[in-house]
Amino acid sequence: MIYAYAANVFYSVMGKNVAASLLLAAGDGGIFGPILDQITGYARDLWGVFVGLIIVAATLGMIVAILRGTGGMLIGGSKETTVAIISVVGIVLLVVVAFVAIPQLAKMITDLKPAAPF
Amino acid sequence: MGDTLQIVLNVLRQAWGALTLFIISAAVLAMLAKTLSTLGASSIGARLIVWESLATIAAVIILVLVAFVGIPPIVQAVAVSIPGAPGCGPITELGTFASGLIAAIAGVRMLLSIARTIGGAAIGGTAEVSQALMEVVEALFGMLLAGVAIPLIAVFFTAGCSQYQLPQSGNPFWATPTH
């Protein structure tokens, strides 16, 4: 329940940040405007797909790690248990860094966008 | 010819803007795709794929910085160094037209090579930084060679054009020597 809520919050925060940056970046494309609109639409859809897949992959990865740790605890293997805990923490850190860092990088890249030098 | 040059330059400027937006979108999607790849690979214990994915994320960031911070000053510097076509007559106008377009075409070409590489990473491939930078250098050398060749060609075709006097009709192709 809490995990689903957190996933929804992450999804909405990431979506808003990146959508805002892309909207700010998107200006009048001139003759390339229609193509850019299509590409931006597909990019937004693909963003949603990737975010969903990341959440699914992270969930499955944590479940696999916990399963390994549980099996290790069952047979008395402390190393397996330790590796499992580290794996879970690592997956959570990776997902949080990705969901926070990538939108910030997108904003930074958008700010660096140069005008035509000719 | 000046109006034509401005029209073509406007199209190339719009292409530049479109490519920068594409690079931003593709870079963000590429980083997200490689994050997904890292997660999946770490779940199954494939360390090589984890490192490859992390390296691709770093490569995408490097390519974006090269595209947005490195290419514009290079294009500006080389554009300033390209001389206008000396001589007289229609060849000079063509030379001026060409020299105005060289920097624009080379700049768009460089940005296109980086956009293609980042786009490949966004759909799951690897970002080959070396390949992208080789294409950028190719475009740069092409621009420099064209910048050297155009004035030489203009001088070759208009050698001694000061010896000719235009007829009353003003058609330069019917110029006759004065001596």
Radius of gyration of chain A: 20 Å
| Number of separate structural domains of chain A | 1
Approximate helicity band of chain B: over 70%
Number of helices of chain B: 4
Spatial order of strands in the largest sheet of chain B: 1-2
Mean pLDDT of chain B: 81
Total domains of chain B: 1
The pair of chains with the biggest contact is:
A-B, 45 and 44 residues
Number of strands of chain B: 2
Q: How far is the N terminus from the C terminus of chain A?
A: 55 Å
Averaged pLDDT of chain A: 82
Output the helix-strand order of chain A: HHH
User: Which descriptor suits the 3D outline of chain A?
Assistant: elongated
Q: Which descriptor suits the 3D outline of chain B?
A: elongated
The percent range for strand residues of chain A is under 5%
What count of helical segments of chain A does DSSP give?
A: 3
Assign the structural class of chain B, choosing from mainly alpha, mainly beta, alpha/beta, alpha+beta, or little secondary structure.
mainly alpha
User: Uncertain regions of chain A: pLDDT < 50 for 5+ in a row?
Assistant: none
Low-confidence runs of chain B (pLDDT<50, min 5 residues)?
none
Please summarize the sheet with the most strands of chain A: none
Cα radius of gyration of chain B in angstroms: 23 Å
